[in-house]
Amino acid sequence: MHCCDVILYVRLTNEWFAKDTSRKVKTAFKAKFAAGQRIGAYAPIGYRKHPEIKNKLIIDEETRWIVEKIFDLAIHGRGAASITRILIAEKVPSPGFINFQRDGTFANIYAGASEEKSYAWTIAQVKSIMKDETYIGHTIHYRETNISFKNKRRIRKPQSEWVRVENTQEPIISEQVFQQVQEQIASRRRERKNGTTQIFAGLIKCADCGWSLAYGENRQNSKPYGYYHCSKNGQGTRQCSMHYIRYDVLYAYVLSRLQYWSGLVQHDEERLLKRLLNASDKGQAAARKKQAAELKKTEKRKAEVDALFSRMYEDWAAGRITEYNFNMLSGKYQSEQAELDGKIGQLQAAIAAENQSAADAEKWIALMKECVNPTELTAELLNTLIEKIVVHEAVKSEDGSREQEVEIFYRFIGKID
Predict the structure, then answer these.
(1) Long-range contacts: 264-269, Cβ < 8 Å, 24+?
(2) Element (H or E) spanning 155, and its range?
């Protein structure tokens, strides 16, 4: 064999071997990921590596408060930059410094460095934590990959190709809080040229098309004023009507409603809770009682059918009934079992929804207690209490007066006005 052929053969063999090894490694990783294992050099802040189970995370009680603080600030309207400044001002240790203190890693950065280095948070770090599903108990794999087995440079994969494995570790943050933070990130408030931000940004929606309302200013009057209008109408296509509302009118209305509910919480909390739950409606109370009784009755019948089916099988196995009768009764019992399972599921879901409604109402009342007698609106206050504000098109009367419906949907409880 010619020497050039030998070299070519060796190269092809090496390439095939490298490619095959890469394939085997990927297959092994896929199996581990599917089993809920987490592969990584370091545990994310708020977690530790399990001391006994390999590739498993457990909550780190010493640092979970940092994650909870970040999400608490975010849910109250703070952006990543603002949160970063707070963490630095309060001298909260950064993830890298915590790893250095515990394991001596990153010594090249922290050993002998000034104190400021220990809490040198970056906006990118905070953003990463705010978007990380690790904190709701899930793990995302294959966000990045090598270009090929020959080129080890990492590239970002499309989100459609990510692999999401749920319930891989105990969550630190609730799913509801996490989703609310994602919504706020998506509708983040951009600072305007004069240094101010719009406190209603991301909250105001058009009643007809569902698009966000855009902010504008009328500077032609002697007294300039701000206003909102449907952003779909503002594109020039006239696909929706204006839904015009002045900023000061919206501000005054929303503040008045929050002041009303705040007063009710302070003076008659029990009455408010009943109002939120419609507990004064005896018909609903009777319906809940009937659901509970129906569930108990259905579960009892299900247990009876299961026992009958079990005895029938024993009779068939012992030859006390024919196979024809067994098949006939078997179909009948299995059909009833499926029907009863479905009914039990529906009743349990209805009762759980009622219980969740009570819990959500209590959560909202607790939030209102934190915002006693508000005298002004802030982004933090609005994001704490309100999910969205829906603005309808104004209706003009014959006398020229203008009426406009504005719906406020509060967090946890929805529309109550």
Answers:
(1) 265/365, 265/368, 265/369, 266/372, 266/373, 269/365
(2) strand 154-156
Tokens of 395: 């209706």
Q: How many CA atoms lie within 13 A of 8 on its CB side?
A: 5
Sort residue 86 into left (φ over 0), alpha (ψ -120 to 50) or beta: alpha
pLDDT in the model for residue 144: 64
Instruction: Spell out the domain ranges in the chain.
Output: 31-185, 192-417
Which amino acid does the sequence have at 61? Answer: E
Tallying the residues shown for the chain, one arrives at 417
User: Token pair of 309, please?
Assistant: 């089916």
For the chain, give me the number of helices (H) and strands (E)?
A: 12, 15
Q: 136: closest CA among 178, 180, 82, 193?
A: 178
Q: Tell me, what's the pLDDT at 413?
A: 80
Q: What is the pLDDT of residues 162-179, one digit of tens each?
A: 777 888 888 999 888 898
Establish how many alpha carbons lie within 13 A of residue 229's alpha carbon, considering only the half-sphere containing its beta carbon: 16
- pTM of the prediction? 0.54
CATH T-level fold of 31-185: Hect, E3 ligase catalytic domain fold (3.90.1750)
Do 58 and 76 meet the contact criterion of CB atoms below 8 Å apart? no
Beta strands 386-391; 204-206: pairing state: parallel
User: Structure tokens of 79?
Assistant: 């952006």
pLDDT band at 91 (very low <50, low <70, confident <90, very high): very high
The owner of tokens 């003009």 is: 396
